[in-house]
Amino acid sequence: MPRKAKIILKDALAARELGPEERAGAAVELAERLAELCQGRSSHEAVRRYIAHLAKEAPAMFSFLADDRVDATNWRAEQGIRPAVVNRKVWGGNRTARGGRTQGTIMSVIRTAGQHGVDAIDYLTSLARGPDPGLAVLLG
Predict the structure, then answer these.
(1) Which of 68, 104, 108, 129 is in the most buried spot, having the most CB atoms within 10 Å?
(2) Rounded to 5°, angle at Cα 79 from 7 and 16
(3) How many CB atoms lie within 10 A of CB 7?
(4) Of 14, 57, 63, nearest to 34 (Cα)?
(5) Residue 39, CA distances (Å) to 3, 48, 50, 74, 121 in order
């Protein structure tokens, strides 16, 4: 069963190269194949959990074939947060778990602001100076 799921997912990734109309048709066909696969049964608990997960995610599984703005994988997001994750995992120069969590939160805010074209320092400064500091509470 996991091999069949892998084949469906690889076929979906390959369908990215098709034209818009062909991608839409491929998305329908892939969704049908996935639905059929999710009807399967298994005596292995891990496989049953995997089938349940695939069934739950099925409505969004091939959305990247219908909408060019949707990435097929989360690679871009994973790479975007990688520096903050590495920093957090080595405690970001902090000596406590709380300091590490705070550092992780701050790095997430800074990275997200950058991805949205917002100057993170200006954003955090305005929060700290505002009547409702919001995220600035985390800095104190």
Answers:
(1) 104
(2) 35
(3) 12
(4) 57
(5) 15, 10, 12, 27, 51
How far CA 77 is from CA of 29, 84, 122, 129, in Å, comes to: 28, 12, 24, 31
Query: Pick the residue with more confidence: 33 or 128?
Result: 33
Quick one: how many helices (H) and strands (E) in the chain? 8, 0
Dist. CA 85–CA 120, nearest whole Å: 18
* CB distance 115 to 80 below 8 Å: yes
Q: Pick the closest to residue 37 from 77, 1, 75, 63 (CA basis).
A: 1
Q: Is the pLDDT at 11 greater than 90, yes or no?
A: yes
| pTM metric for this prediction | 0.56
Q: DSSP assignment of 70-115, as one string?
A: S-SSSHHHHHHHHHHHHHHHTGGG-SSHHHHHHHHHHHHHHHHHHH
pLDDT at 134: 61
